[in-house]
Amino acid sequence: MGRTNMAHEHRGDPLGITSAAIALVDTHGLIKYWSAAAQNLLGYAAAEVLRRPATSLLLCEDALTSAWSGARRVGAGWEAEVTVRHSTGHPLEVALRACPVRAGNGSEWLIAACDIAASHRWELDQAVVRTLLKERALTGTGPDEEPRPPWVNPPAGMEGPPQDAPVLPPSTLCARRMPSVVDAPAGPATGLGRGQGTRRSSRRPANQGKALGPRSTAVAVPSYDEARERLALINEAGQRIGTTLDLDHTVRELAEVLVPELADFAAIDLFQGGLTAKEVTGEPVTGGALRRAANLSIHEEHPEVVVAIGEPTRYPARSPQRRCLEAGRSILDPVLAPTTWWLTDDPLRLEKLHRIGVHTHLTVPLRARGVTMGVVTLLRWENPDAFDEDDQLLVEELVARAAVCVDNARRFAREHNAALTLQTSLLPPDLPDHSAVELAYRYLPTDAEAGVGGDWFDVIPLSGARVALVVGDVVGHGIHAAASMGRLRAAVQTLADLDLPPDELLAHVDDLVLRLADEAEAATDDPMVIGATCVYAVYDPISGKLNVARAGHPSPAIAHLSEPVEFPDIPAGPPLGLGGLPFESAEIEVEEGSVIALYTDGLIEASDRDVDVGFERLCFALAHPDRPLEEICDTMVRSLLPDHPHDDVAFLIARTHRLPLDRVASWEVPSDPRAVHDVRCEAVRQLTEWGLEDLAFTTELIVSELVTNAIRHASGPTALRLILDRSLICEVSDASNTSPHMRRSPITDEGGRGLFLVAQVAQRWGTRYTGTGKTVWAEQPLPSGDVPPRR
What we know:
The chain is of the alpha+beta class. The strands form five sheets. A six-stranded antiparallel β-sheet has the order 2-1-6-5-4-3, sandwiched between helices. A six-stranded antiparallel β-sheet has the order 9-8-7-12-11-10, sandwiched between helices. Strands 14, 15, 16, 17, 19 and 20 form a six-stranded mixed β-sheet that branches.
């Protein structure tokens, strides 16, 4: 069939949106909309065809294939002739025009149809019009009695769309086409926007609706198809809005689509709950704090801006924005008219709107999935045409589509914040300030957007001025790995508080991982893999020794001051979760000032090269351990990690310190009750030397009770040790493995209150087991809270 381009179709085109039979076919090929004209043409009521396959209306299965084999491209769509089945059963030849309409998950099809005879008559008329346009002027004067040909329109403005023109759903955006008239040679076609640069124009010709002369005839020539351009704008918006899940970026993209195509200025205000990714009620909104999320103007200086981005917006009670949110529908208002009395309560906004000459004001609610997230405001002043119903319909469709993207970004932000909150609560908020080590760390989850992973690190203060350093790695990534990591970290902290040796601690954690795996397998049909690796090290600043055990984890690296970087040979225990296999620990002497690095395997395996290359780069990064620890961390990240690591990475580095010898005092205690008096006096003399006379009374009580219990209830040699660190530590060691327990003695008992008294005067106390017995310890805070200077 011969067809003119859709962008230049005659107003009387039988396939025009106001006269043709209209159907909308969704992405699954099902009929989604059926107009009254379609019912008149084919005889089927809407209830008979809706949600049915469009191909069910064809006369035979091969009808569609043969029709589209002869189809031709027209603008953004296709035209073809096809034979369909009328409701009475007889075949009917129709002409079709199909245009794609972008939907959320694909393209829907807007189909216009008419009887084939009407299509042929219109083609004949168009051929005559084109011939006349070549041979005579667009407007001609002739005898009044000259009969008007059937293909000549009445004067412009005298004819509108048919009274029974179908009303399409907003998603088709086939707005009413305005009649056009030609009284001069055709120029460039203009469309929706205004005519500055790339901005389009929706202005009508100045002489539209006026008589051209007493003997003038007006011939309607092809005009720019507004419906097609609106669909093109929606298609462009679908490609430009929602390219990321960043909320600020998404609302900015919406503003860029609206300006300058449809407005001179656009502002997007979101509820503060939406900005913080909290749920907002889907009911009509009567209050709530709005904050400016984005605005855009045709002028770089933004003369119309009253509220800066990020600041709260305070619209008057009866402003279009508030009425829009309360009613849940768009509001179209003229500005500087009697309807803008609400501006009297906002003199700043009134002055700006008056000064730049804003004449119309359009507000549209930003709603998606039953949630009102904010309001969009559009202004015009340079474009003399006020917003009309067609503009309002188009803006509503654009905002509705953008609202889904904004809601997706909001939901992602909510989930992201929840994941970050979980991760923050599971990892240590800050490293403790400990006299035994100086610390620094890095935590880099591979899921950078979610910010969560299964790696963890920890620094746990222990008794006797010691400190435990922990780094672990849970199998997998994301929120499930983070949850498992939190449980393991809590278990390690609890077991560390019992002062268990590293190998025994890992054995207990291994049992926990086995239980977690059993729970996961029983809870879901698709069980998660629960497994982990861990390295646990205890550093003693008094002896300068590091006691380490590892469960399937890389060995720590030790950067000595005077020797090359060392990877000590520590027995490689099995990964956590295998069960039934032993763990072993190793003791290493570390000189003061050395740097100990504990890390996950993601650090050394991040490079695409061999793992040995990762170890070499780690040695390079740890060279010169006298540098600041933060500088060493930065060097490790730069030299070992790519821009996007494929595995979570966590590492902890510690510079060791020794406790000065004059801060430790120890005595051997004979197994004689009379020796209690002597060691008590020695302890008081030591406190006097340290300048801690204020602690003499409580220290005498602690020493007396702990030494007496050791002599009475334990066996073997007994020793007393006082340690001056950030607190005063009193330790009594013996050869017994029996742990003392605090109890409340009856009034009639003569003893049994020793540990109760110790617990009252000490900040904390406990028991740890050693290779030769046990040690009972008690800590007291220093009176001034200051640590004596090193000597």
